[in-house]
Amino acid sequence: MNINLDNVSTFIATQGVDIGLKIIGAIVAWIIGRWLINLAVGLMGKGLDRAGKLDPTLVKYLKSIVSVLLTVVLILAILGLFGVETTSFAALLAGAGLAIGTAWGGLLAHFAAGVFMQVLRPYKVGDFVQAGGVTGTVTELGLFTTTIVTPDNVTTIVGNNKIFSDNIQNYSTLPVRRVDCVAKVANGVDVQDAIARLRPVIAAIPNVTQTPAPDIEILEFTPEGPKLCVRPYTNNEHYWQVYFDTHKAIVDTFGAAGYPVPETPMSYRGLPLPAPGPVQA
User: Fold this and answer.
1) 3-state SS class at 50
2) CATH top-level class for 122-170?
3) Which of 12, 24, 38, 218 is 20 to 30 Å from 239 by CA-CA measure?
4) Measured distance CA(160)–CA(110) in Å, rounded
5) Considering the domain 177-256, what is its CATH architecture?
């Protein structure tokens, strides 16, 4: 027992001070390091918030990621003070990252696409878009998925990677949007008269813009009669109101003008009558 105590006292006398200083140095390094990390992350967050180009959710995630990475570097540096080989820890972290990347490949792809979409901003909440094969109003733009409400009031959640790897149409980017309608007039009706009657009526529909003015022209010819394209312009917010009011205006205008209803020409061919059957006695 005396030998053990002597060994302990000798160890403390020779190595204790060095170990104690290392422990104190590690504690001081941890406190100062964490303070510097929080300061750096806070300044980064304020800078991103001041710029106003990134979504607050993305800023929060970026701050968390940077904080975790800097904390790992700080821990490795503190372990280096004790003479611990950090290469093995680095290899372990690299292996863990590879395993996580392989297991969560799909989620990470959606996450990466979400980050790019937050930066590039192809659309924002409230925009009417066609993205990932879905058309509707964006109600939520997350880091993994985008939530879209379709015109028939169905909530659809689409993965960001699917959206980012496909074409995106944003109907809300420009101030006005064209409303495509058609009107068919019967053969024999004066097409120019029909166009002249429609122009002031369509232009008077609420929320139809005067610049650009509505387009009313001959689109094509059909067996029933000429088909007109009727294309007013309006803000996307009033699209469906203008769409339905335009169709009502076409029916009312043509009805008031007394235009006949277009009919498909029918050709009738005489068919032989069936032979009479035998008369029953």
Assistant:
1) helix
2) mainly beta
3) 218
4) 5
5) 2-Layer Sandwich (3.30)
What does the domain layout of the chain look like in residue ranges? 2-103, 122-170, 177-256
- Encode pLDDT of 180-213 as tens digits: 999 999 988 999 999 999 999 999 999 999 999 9
Q: 189: which 2 tokens?
A: 């009706």
pLDDT at 135: 93
> Crossing angle for the helix pair 87-103 and 56-81, nearest 10 degrees?
150
pLDDT tens track for 81-125: 766 666 666 666 676 666 666 655 567 787 788 878 877 888 888
Give SS3 for 232.
coil
Tokens of 131: 């993205």
Is the previous residue joined to 262 through a cis bond, with omega within 30 degrees of 0? no
- Mean pLDDT throughout 25-43? 86
Q: What percent of the chain has pLDDT over 90?
A: 38
**193: nearest Cα among 261, 264, 254, 262:** 254
Is the pLDDT confidence value at 165 over 80? yes
| Torsion (CA) 227, 231, 232, 234 in degrees, nearest 10 | 140
State both tokens at 102.
Answer: 């392989």
- Only one residue has tokens 């990347």, namely 101
Distance CA 281, CA 279 (A): 6
Structure token pair of residue 199: 């122009």
Give CA–CA dist 255/258, Å, rounded.
Answer: 5
Closest C-alpha among 129, 121, 132, 127 to residue 157: 132
Pairwise CA distance, residues 269 & 261, whole Å: 24
* Domain 2-103 CATH assignment equals 1.10.287.1260: yes
| CA 4 – CA 253 distance, rounded (Å) | 110
Which burial class, exposed, middle or buried, applies to 179 when counting CB atoms under 10 A from its CB (0-12, 13-18, 19+)? buried
